[in-house]
Write a structure and sequence with these properties.
Radius of gyration: 21 Å
CATH superfamily: MFS general substrate transporter like domains
CATH topology: Growth Hormone, Chain: A
Strand content: under 5%
Number of helices: 10
Structural class: mainly alpha
Largest sheet: none
Shape: globular
Length: about 210
Amino acid sequence: MKGKLTVLMITAFVDMLGFAMVIPLLPFYATKLGASASIVGVLIAAFSIAQLASAPLWGRFSDRYGRRPALLAGLMISAIAYVIFAYASTLWLLLICRIVQGLGGGTIGVVQAYVADASDPKDRAKSLGWLSAATSFGAVVGPAIGSALIHWGGTRRGSRPRSSAFWSASSPRLICGSRARRSPRRASMESSTKPVLGPFGASSRGRTSRRSA
């Protein structure tokens, strides 16, 4: 169980890391393509707007098909969008990529539900607290890593500074996606096989089967 929670914490950290890593670089990237200050604001806000719109849809998807498929799909969508974003040459493509990144990043509610499913009832609040800490840590270190990568990439001859940063934002998502694919099945599916206790401690599922017999 601890291994599953560790993967979920890393997933939440990477999700926020990729979002925060791009923020210091996006204004410079957009202005080089001719964007005004208002367009830069739209590009920054597009992620959060798309994330807000997609979060309920991801929740419904995870309830029907499982937490893990939803997380895998969100990570892969975000990773592809970041790669395309690194080589975008028009503002319209930047905007579309930001929207797609937000759509893929709307799985934070799925991560929270997955943590709740995978935790024991007595440790659920603690696990959700660690999840919040991992998310906040990604928001703290993301801008620093993005700035360092743009400086490191800019000092290499013939390199594209923005490419190193956006590739770095997409690579951890691919790694987390592959790791999550090998993780155990979600706890809610496991808990569904346990007997349901009735008001007197007896298994209600067992009583139903005896009645039907």
